[in-house]
Recover the amino acids of this structure.
């Protein structure tokens, strides 16, 4: 017996340590899976952030290039302005020469038809006048020839300047349009990346929350398991709480049930169960109790709600929902809140415990009569006496749906 008590104290110490804020709980596959998801979303978030940063830099560079092209276009427009002024000047000179040549041509057409050489030779007053006339004719011919050459040269220059100006302007406009299109594509890509980043951030936050929940579930699961193991260790040596639901026990249990049927439900619902022997009396059979007892031996599974594995609230939900009660799946706190509090339980009513592994209502079972309840214990669905020291120390009250 002393050895059993020492074991109980050791287990209690383990639970106290587990309740410490920095308690270390081994991660199960669910925690590892959630951690992998967090790592994946963190990687995606970082990658998208880097891509957006690169795009931001590209957009910044493109804007700078666009501004540079705008400045170059402005400079080119000034050059074009100067070129256009030069072209206008040359075109004016060309026009004046054309007018001069046309005037001379008209003047020559209006003069009498004479032989210019004869006129020079025979109408000269002297030899000096002769040479002067010859020289004048030569100068006139050379001047006209130079005018014609300049006219052709400047006309070619005008054409060349116009071509250069048009090509330069077209090149700059094209370059600007390309940069604007590039900026538009970058902005579109940035918006898409930003949208993906927001999604990745949301996924990351959700994954982190799920990881925290998984770690908390694992911690709570471990604490609950340790608490239930403590309950098992609190039982007396040699106790056998297993119950067989047989017709032989039914008649005696019925009389027990009937004798309690007139008990008042208005007194204190927190009155603790009797502290006498664990074998206080026969249990009830039939109906909901029989249905619950048939699951003895089903293993304990945290969050379990089926005959493949139950936790305490999952067991309550399954038994009651299969016996005509329209209750939804809830936790112990929810069931305690919704239950009608009673002081004298009947077989099929609920037994609530508190502060077993978390503060407040935290464990429950089905009262089966004989000062016993069937519940999801550390070894699965089993029967435990309400006189058990662990049960009495955590007893909260009785209730019914």
């Amino acid at each position: 017996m002393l050895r059993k008590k020492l074991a109980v104290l050791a287990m209690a110490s383990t639970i106290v340590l587990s309740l410490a804020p920095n308690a270390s709980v081994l991660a199960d596959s669910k925690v590892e899976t959630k951690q992998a998801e967090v790592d994946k979303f963190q990687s995606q978030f970082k990658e998208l952030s880097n891509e957006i940063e690169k795009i931001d830099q590209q957009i910044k560079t493109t804007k700078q290039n666009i501004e540079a092209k705008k400045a170059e276009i402005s400079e080119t427009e000034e050059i074009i302005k100067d070129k256009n002024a030069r072209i206008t000047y040359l075109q004016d000179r060309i026009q004046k020469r054309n007018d001069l040549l046309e005037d001379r041509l008209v003047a020559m057409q209006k003069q009498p038809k004479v032989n210019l050489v004869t006129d020079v030779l025979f109408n000269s007053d002297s030899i000096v006048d002769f040479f002067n006339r010859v020289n004048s004719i030569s100068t006139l011919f050379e001047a006209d020839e130079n005018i014609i050459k300049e006219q052709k040269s400047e006309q070619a220059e005008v054409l060349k300047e116009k071509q250069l100006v048009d090509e330069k302007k077209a090149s700059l406009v094209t370059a600007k349009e390309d940069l604007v299109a590039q900026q538009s594509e970058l902005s579109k890509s940035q918006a898409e990346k930003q949208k993906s980043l927001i999604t990745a951030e949301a996924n990351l936050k959700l994954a982190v929350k799920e990881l925290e929940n998984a770690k908390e579930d694992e911690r709570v699961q471990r604490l609950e398991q340790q608490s239930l193991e403590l309950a098992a260790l609190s039982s007396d040596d040699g106790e056998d709480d297993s119950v067989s639901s047989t017709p032989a026990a039914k008649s005696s249990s019925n009389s027990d049930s009937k004798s309690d049927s007139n008990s008042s439900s208005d007194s204190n619902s927190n009155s603790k169960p009797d502290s006498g022997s664990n074998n206080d009396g026969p249990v009830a059979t039939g109906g909901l109790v029989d249905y619950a007892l048939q699951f003895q031996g089903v293993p304990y599974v945290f969050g379990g709600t089926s005959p493949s594995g139950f936790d305490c609230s999952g067991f309550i939900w399954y038994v009651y929902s299969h016996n005509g009660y329209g209750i939804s799946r809830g936790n112990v706190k929810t069931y305690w809140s919704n239950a009608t509090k009673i002081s004298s339980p009947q077989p099929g009513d609920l037994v609530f415990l508190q502060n077993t592994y978390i503060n407040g209502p935290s464990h429950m079972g089905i009262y089966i009569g004989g000062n016993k309840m069937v519940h999801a214990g550390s070894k699965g669905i089993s029967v435990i006496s309400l006189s058990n020291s662990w049960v009495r120390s955590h007893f909260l009250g009785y209730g019914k749906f």
